[in-house]
Design brief:
Largest sheet: none
Number of strands: 0
Order of helices and strands: HHHH
Shape: elongated
Mean pLDDT: 82
Helix content: 55-70%
Strand content: under 5%
Structural class: mainly alpha
Distance between the termini: 108 Å
Radius of gyration: 29 Å
């Protein structure tokens, strides 16, 4: 007498690797180092992208803070000090935003890493950089336009 085999269970099909024609299991399509199935694996945390996001955010906050710091200086009428603060502010914002763009580009094109933080860092950094370029070009454009 033979004992009947248990009925086929669908749960076994999800955990049993496929068998090739030679009878060997085909495990090459599974990442055995991960606890998640291949369909749900996410990209690794992108520390360069996070760095780009942080540097870009600091550059944006620094620009707003230094703009607000000029209010009492304008009230006092010290216009030379405003020029110095603007020069330092634009220099710091420009350097930080260029650094954030470089970090963001490197992070965005890394394979196997998440691109979310890199894309956000690139967006903020490009916006800050365009603001810096516009602020630097404004006096030249205004002098040409009002001749």
């Amino acid at each position: 007498m033979t004992t009947p085999s248990p009925p086929f269970d669908d749960a076994d099909a999800a955990t049993t690797p496929p068998v090739s024609a030679s009878g060997a299991s085909d495990l090459s399509r599974y990442d055995l180092s991960s606890s998640q199935p291949p369909e749900t694996q996410r990209g690794q945390r992108n520390t360069l992208g996070l760095g780009s996001l942080l540097v870009a955010a600091i550059a944006a906050v620094l620009g707003v803070a230094l703009q607000l710091a000029q209010i009492p200086i304008v009230a006092a009428g010290s216009y030379q000090l405003i020029a110095g603060i603007s020069f330092v502010s634009l220099g710091l914002q420009g350097l930080m935003s260029v650094a954030a763009v470089i970090l963001g580009l490197v992070a965005f094109f890394q394979r196997g890493h998440s691109r979310t933080a890199a894309a956000a860092g690139l967006g903020i950094a490009c916006t800050v950089l365009l603001g810096v370029i516009g602020s630097c070009l404004y006096p030249f454009i205004a002098s040409i336009a009002y001749r």
